[in-house]
Backbone:
C-alpha cells in the first residue's frame, strides 16, 4: 500500500473516532495519536497540551463535554503528504449535546491535523481545532476581561 492510501485509511479512522468523541468517548481518537514526547493538542476548551499525558487528559476533559452526538461531515480545505509527514486542514461538521444542554446542536470546527509516519503507520502528532469557521471582526482577537 502506498503512503497516501495508507494515510487516507487513518484519516477515515480519525473521522469515525470524532463521531465517538461527540458521544463522550475519547479512546478511539487516543489510539491514533503518537505516543512520542512531541505530541501536541490544541482544542477549543483550553491552552495547548504537550506530551502524551497532557494530551490524553485534555482529550478526556474535552470528550466529557459531549454526548449523544456524531460526525456528520468533513470539508477538506487542504492536504499534503510526503513519505514521512502529512497534514490535513478541514472544517469538521459535528453534532452533539454540549455540556448540560438537552438538544443536539451543530458543532463546526476548523481543524489542522499533522501526521507522522512512525513504526506501525501514520500517527497524529498535532491537532488544533477551534470554532472559527466564518469571517470575524478585527476586535474578535481582543481578550475580553
Residues:
Amino acid at each position: 500500500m502506498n503512503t497516501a492510501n495508507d494515510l487516507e485509511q487513518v484519516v477515515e479512522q480519525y473521522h469515525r473516532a470524532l463521531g465517538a468523541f461527540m458521544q463522550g468517548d475519547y479512546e478511539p481518537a487516543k489510539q491514533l495519536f503518537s505516543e512520542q514526547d512531541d505530541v501536541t493538542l490544541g482544542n477549543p476548551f483550553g491552552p495547548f497540551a504537550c506530551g502524551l499525558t497532557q494530551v490524553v487528559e485534555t482529550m478526556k476533559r474535552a470528550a466529557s463535554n459531549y454526548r449523544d452526538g456524531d460526525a456528520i461531515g468533513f470539508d477538506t480545505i487542504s492536504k499534503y503528504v510526503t513519505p514521512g509527514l502529512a497534514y490535513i486542514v478541514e472544517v469538521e461538521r459535528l453534532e452533539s449535546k454540549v455540556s448540560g444542554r438537552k438538544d443536539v446542536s451543530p458543532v463546526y470546527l476548523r481543524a489542522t491535523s499533522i501526521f507522522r509516519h512512525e513504526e506501525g503507520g501514520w500517527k497524529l502528532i498535532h491537532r488544533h481545532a477551534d470554532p472559527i469557521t466564518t469571517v470575524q471582526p478585527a476586535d474578535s482577537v481582543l481578550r475580553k476581561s
Q: What stands out?
A: The mean pLDDT is 95. The beta strands are 40-42, 49-50, 66-81, 85-98, 105-118, 121-130. Residues 3-21 form the longest helix (19 residues).
